[in-house]
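This section describes the prediction task in plain terms. A model, or a person checking by hand, is given the sequence of a single protein chain and must write out its three-dimensional structure as a string of tokens. No templates, partner chains or ligands are provided. The sample shown here is typical of the held-out split.
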Amino acid sequence: MMHMTFYWGNKVTLLFDSWKTDSYLSYFITLLVCFLFSVFYQYMEDRRIRFKIISNSKKSSSSSNSSIESPLLTRLKINQPARYATSLLFAINSAIGYMLMLAIMSFNGGVFIAIVLGLAFGYLLFRTGDEEVVVLENPCACV
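The expected answer:
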């Protein structure tokens, strides 16, 4: 039976039927994996944003900025390799983010705390220098 409220205990099924914890050691390893994936999520988000900034700066330096572009009238530029790489990083980061969300939906208090602490620690390591970077888009409401 799936829990519908937060519970505290070392018995948890996470994401897959085969990922079950039955001892404190397996529970600790699960919490460590959740923590590390949360840190990796922040790392990948930082790489994606920085790669997008680099690709946009190269694009803007090669094109003239004399005209103001309307978002509805611009042409799609599908043949740029940087767009494919940015899209791939976004897909990977979205998949990790949704897996973390589903892990939190196990309603285990330890999993919740491990993921939130991992996100905070990853933000501290990789994203605290983002104050000078302005990102106008946030398509995912999870983080």
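For orientation: The mean pLDDT is 81.
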